[in-house]
Amino acid sequence: MTTTTEYGYNSKVEGEVIVSKADAVINWVRRHSVWPMPMGLACCAIELMAAGGSRFDISRFGMEVMRFSPRQSDCMIVAGTVTYKMAQVVRRIYDQMAEPKWVVAMGACASTGGMYRSYATLQGVDRIVPVDVYISGCPPRPEALLDGMMRLQDKIKTESSTRTLLRNRPVRDLTFQKK
Ligand code: SF4
Q1: Could you tell me the distance, in angstroms and rounded to a whole number, from the CA of residue 98 to the centre of ligand 1?
Q2: Which residue's alpha carbon is nearest to atom 5 within ligand 1?
Q3: CATH number of the CATH domain containing 72
Q4: Is the model's pLDDT at 175 over the cut of 60?
């Protein structure tokens, strides 16, 4: 088996046995059972909700189980404008989520502050939490969210399953409090 092969199977040799790597199996389970924490903060959240409807059907990717508890979710989707007032709450909920966990910044506001270059708006949620996938748009359409979630699946696929439990995920700037 090469290092890039996820599983090996030869019916003449193994019969009903499939050989694989622990990382491949664990990451396969993880990427097909992402439970999002819908951090809907503004208009982008409407597109996030649409992704759960029958037209776009996020359940095709095993991601329809939106949880409103950090104890039951592993992917925070930040959809909307992050104000300084809300930033503390976003960070606290992120801290309450268990590893392994991922963050998706959905839309211009969550990614960069968007058009709100103002004293009240955090200029990107990556100042307080480590972001795995950024999705452009104002707002991004549900298809863009699905594409971003598939990019996240690709990222999970290449991770070391144990290292993600131990990593100390850095963030660019934790000093988000207003001066
Ligand atoms: S990116 Fe656009 S649609 Fe999304 S929250 Fe900001 S202003 Fe609203």
Answers
A1: 28
A2: 80
A3: 3.40.50.12280
A4: no
